[in-house]
Amino acid sequence: GTRFVDHGRNMLLALGVLFVAAQVPPQRLLQLAVPLYVVGVALLIVTALPGVGITKKGATRWLNVGMVIQPSEIMKIAMPLMLAWWFQRREGQLRIADFLVAGALLVLPVGLVMKQPDLGTSLLVLAAGLYVIFFAGLSWKLIAPVLVLGALAIGAIVLSADAICADGVQWPLLKEYQRHRVCTLLDPTKDPLGKGFHIIQGMIAIGSGGLTGKGFMQGTQTHLEFIPERTTDFIFAAFAEEFGLAGVLTLLAAFTFLLFRGLWIASEAPTV
């Protein structure tokens, strides 16, 4: 019951923030882009200094500035704002050099976040920046080779999963726990009672929902604690068990509508 109250309060607060943000002219947002980006990068650098950042579970991601904050969260907003500011200044005269500058603006915070290490947040910041660069007009001639190489790399990882996930094999650039996560994703049945347990239980929860689900608050996998973090990390499994395929398709349709509606509004919005 308390979770519903908490989420209801948070949704009302979020609606209030969205309403206030919608009243801010784009020109004002552009004025905030550079200061927000600079502050975000500065906080990431300070977090990385020895003895300054707060370390939990082997990751130094937090900073105490009177209250504990996670500077990488700032970059989720600052990164697309900064790139939008840059491309707006270069509008009508974009050259390859401008995209290289945008790439440098993107790589700096992504590298700092990845070093914490926080691969998940770094990928989110990277994706936010890449979308802005793409919509700014980056040529498909440059995008297509990267997409092809990415697809080939993913295919190679999947096909060679048994070899690269064998005991004793070290992966460059990635931490050991990150390697375990990838290998568990590729085949959770290799450690069904250990690292793969929660993924398997999540799959069981999704499958047991059937077409229409077990009903609201009636999910057995969820409420018997077979899956952890059912309100965050495993929210999709919990939702699928209770509302089934019909509910999942409705949810995906709603997210798709929200995504394309946002893109449509952005495409129609004035730039001056």
Q: Could you list some keywords that capture this structure?
A:
3-stranded antiparallel beta sheet, globular, about 270 residues, about 70% helix, mainly alpha
Helices, strands, pairings?
Elements: H1 2-22, H2 26-48, E1 54-56, E2 59-64, E3 68-69, H3 71-89, H4 96-114, H5 119-135, H6 140-159, H7 161-164, H8 176-186, H9 197-208, H10 220-223, H11 235-268
Antiparallel strand pairs: 1-2, 2-3
Helix pairs in contact: 2-3, 2-4, 3-4, 3-5, 4-5, 9-11
Indicate the overall shape.
globular
Major beta sheet, specifics?
Answer: 3 strands, antiparallel
The arrangement of helices and strands along the chain is HHEEEHHHHHHHHH
Give the amount of beta strand, in percent: under 5%
Radius of gyration: 22 Å
Q: What is the tally of beta strands? A: 3
Structural class: mainly alpha
Which blocks of ≥5 consecutive residues have pLDDT under 50? Answer: none
Q: Helix segment count?
A: 11
Distance, first to last CA: 47 Å
Helix content: 55-70%
Overall pLDDT metric: 85
Strand order of the largest sheet: 1-2-3
What does this structure look like?
The protein has 272 residues and is mainly α. 68% of the residues lie in helices and 4% in strands. The protein has helices at 2-22, 26-48, 71-89, 96-114, 119-135, 140-159, 161-164, 176-186, 197-208, 220-223, 235-268, and strands at residues 54-56, 59-64, 68-69. It has a three-stranded antiparallel beta sheet with strand order 1-2-3. A hairpin with a 2-residue loop joins strand 1 and strand 2. Helix 2 packs across helix 3, helix 3 packs parallel to helix 5 and helix 9 crosses helix 11. The chain is globular.
